[in-house]
Amino acid sequence: MNIKSLIHSKNENALAFFNILGPVILNGINFFTVPVFTRMLGTENYGIVSIYTTWVQVLSIVMGIQTGGTIVVSKAYFDEKEQNAYFSSTLFLSCITSAVITLLTMLFIQPISAFMKLDRVIVCLMLLQSFGSYVISFATLKFIYAKEASKNFLVSVLVSISSVVISLILIANIRDFSDRYWGRIIGYALPNIIIGAVLTVMILAKGKTFYQKTYWKFCLPLCLPLIFHHLSQIVLAQCDRIMLQQLLNDNGTVGIYSFVFTFVHILNIIWSALNNTWVPFYYDYVKQNNIEAIHRRSKNYMFLYTTLCAGFVLLSPEVVKLFAPEDFWSGIELIPIIASSCYMVFLYSFPVNFEFYHKKTLLIACGTCSAAVVNIVLNFLFIPLWGNIGAATATAISYIMLFLFHQIIAKYVIKQEYHYSWIMFLPGIVVMLLVSALFYVTVNLWYVRWPIGMALGGILLCRVYRNKSIF
């Protein structure tokens, strides 16, 4: 297959290639520049930047009201010729809500700035970046479900490279070390603002529809519960950092935790890319009632991700020491706990994909909100006692509960045939428990862990080659 045919192919392996490559480049460049930024910023500045990015994630969910989450469902209810009009109309709805939230924030900028412990100019940048980030995610979903993964790849590369280049230039030109977080924050903001604005104009111009009652009436009941679902996801993934800052008042601790979280987060990036590729084909199999394909491909998918997680955990301590100065090494002990959280996200995506297909977004939101509440309570209990380890443990327990909730809902509450039994998930869970135990026993014995990790990688490559498919 030549390059041109690969770019335009809608084969699942080609789509997976671009869906994985785009996010991996987007986050991978950031990941591989971590050694540079940790040294240029230090733990204090790194902690401030992580707090800023957490608030951006929260605001982008609220400002966009998650209209992009209805894209995949809309394809089952509206003709292909209506799709561009639907995208345009629902994105304009996001523009309206974003404008209202921005206006309200500007009216109360002083108390909001004081609460966030961030400069007012940074709060303004945060608002602009949040909208730009949302539009980029909206366009990304549009490309994914239209099976135009190469466009998704292009956007990811542009955002990633421009963000890093701008950040490095700005940080290098800030003389006062304590102000260097400004360079990284502006570097994050500008590419998202500019690229988000361009994509907004393109989608609105192509759809030429700003208000359509039918589209808004279809969109709002589906997207509004998703706001609470995604906000709760942010709480699950990010509230540890905010609560560490508030309860311990130590930006250095936040910086160490944030570094390890960012390091392990590559597992979530890979899962997201794989899931984005998997879902359109899974929904096709459900429509066709092709149970054999669902079971066979799902087992391949589980083997793939379980092996990746296990290998990552085993190889990670030495990689952390390579990528960060010694001030950050105390966070190595968090890796298996945070990796277990990532693995539970992977597991709960199976029942959630099933629920989403049947338009049960309210149930999805209820589960995630409940897990977020549990996480907050556990953080209050665990962080004063155990600091970073307490925060990581609270998140892991919350994700375990979230998986159990959705598995019960999908299997026993939704009156449709669910494709995944409890026993299907057991082998992967056992593997992750064993690998975590091995990690702590051999944390200083790289010559034990690395051969096992490399052997797992070899087995995975042989299996993919034999099947000629990642799923």
Written account of the structure:
The mean pLDDT is 85. The longest helix is centred in the middle third of the chain and has 36 residues, at 213-248. It contains 18 helices and no strands. With 471 residues, the chain is mostly helical. Helix 3 (34-64) crosses helix 11 (251-264) and helix 5 packs across helix 9 (181-207).
What tags apply to this protein structure?
single chain, 471 residues, mainly alpha
Question: Mean of residue pLDDT?
Answer: 85
Q: What percentage of residues falls in helices of 4 or more residues? A: over 70%
How much beta, percentage-wise?
under 5%
Largest sheet: none
Let me know the number of strands.
0
Rounded to the nearest angstrom, the distance between the terminal CA atoms is 19 Å
- Class by alpha and beta content: mainly alpha
Could you give a short description of this structure?
The protein has 471 residues and is mainly alpha-helical.
